[in-house]
Amino acid sequence: MAKVHEAYGIKVVINERKADWKPKFLSEEEIKSTRKFHTTMDGYKATPLVSLENLAKQLGVSKIYVKDESYRFGLNAFKALGVTYAIAKLLCEKLDVDIDSVGFDYFKLPEVAEKIKDMVFVTATDGNHGKAVAWTATQLGCKSIVYMPKGSSLRRVQTIKEAGAKVYITEVNYDDTVRLAKQKAEEIGGFLVQDTAWEGYEKIPNWICRGYTTMAAEALDQMKLDGIIRPTHVFLQAGVGSFAGAVLGYYVNVFKDQCPITIIVEPEKAACIYKSALINDNNPHSVTGDLDTIMAGLACGEPNIVTWEILRDFAGAYVSCPDYVAAKGMRVLANPTGSDRKVVSGESGAVGLGLVSLLLEREELKELKNKLQLDEHSVILCFSTEGDTDPEDYKKVVDDGKNPSIFE
Ligand SMILES: Cc1ncc(COP(=O)(O)O)c(C=O)c1O
């Protein structure tokens, strides 16, 4: 077992490993075509990278950047980056064309649309991924079926229906809902587009991960314009770990031995990556039960087996967070310091920044801050992966003070 450093419910495991391999499927060479593909899409635009100058000054670090994914394709979350690329790759395989030779609109040409119109995409989701699958399928004139775990937000269900999918709420948690979606896809001859990998199902989730690298690459370009070549710290929140593994895997390829210290952040009731790092036997481990947290997008108990290896070997630390950390991040981003720009960030988007602000501001957390090597030279990058995807809950946290910080 690895050692745990704990304060106020925040638990940190430091990674002592040194690895010398590179995740090839996320190499700069491989992902060039991914970014090129995204740029062919209507509405593609790099999302804002917000530099919180005043907050950084107040908290005593060099820079705090937040990539605001609420602007992605007007969908309020980053997920369509993965889904559009994966579905495009799937269609290219079916149609026997090279993705480098076509753009998104190719699939809408009448003679192509005719060939794909009966395809049905099936998935399980906490919300954002399912909305992206529905949105993509609808644009292509295809059908989509989306399964959601019990207790799913009715607002999110409604949004996915509006995006064109048939939606079913199950009686089980996220991970069992994924198994159900797989079974249903097999029964109806549909195509499972799932954002997590398991033994024998790796190709599509790996394409999804490649899709996520577009935002990681955009962030580096945007930092360069601000004179920054490399962040010192990257905070990545994890559900199954596909997003975090994709971004980290890409940065390992870009920065090699100089990769930023990357901190994986999870809700305490669904901290499967943290648990796997804690057990420290090389293998991914699951968390079961209701996975109860306000961070709906991170309420996943079983790690992606491919990205787990990236997170295991290259992350600097793994953090399990109570819900108050996410709520703190949402409020800090909603109420900017001085002239800093406001970021509307939902529960699963804000937890990284929430952790950053608590570590830097609270004397009680100083030992954890030091363990993560945060100091006045730090250049911090966070990804706000969603906006107010459940506006009512967002309001409760930001305006009504739900989930108050333990220190308030
Ligand atoms: C807003 C948001 N952020 C982060 C994640 C985490 O992604 P992953 O499950 O790949 O770890 C999700 C997943 O649904 C999400 O919706």
UniProtKB/TrEMBL annotation:
InterPro entries linked: DiNH2opropionate_NH3_lyase (IPR010081), DiNH2propionate_NH3-lyase_sub (IPR019871), TrpB-like_PALP (IPR001926), TrpB-like_PALP_sf (IPR036052)
CDD domains with a match to the protein in the record: Trp-synth-beta_II
Pfam families (UniProt xref): PALP (PF00291)
Domain of life: Bacteria
Cofactor: pyridoxal 5'-phosphate
Entry GO MF terms: diaminopropionate ammonia-lyase activity; pyridoxal phosphate binding
Name of the protein: Diaminopropionate ammonia-lyase
Record gene name: dpaL
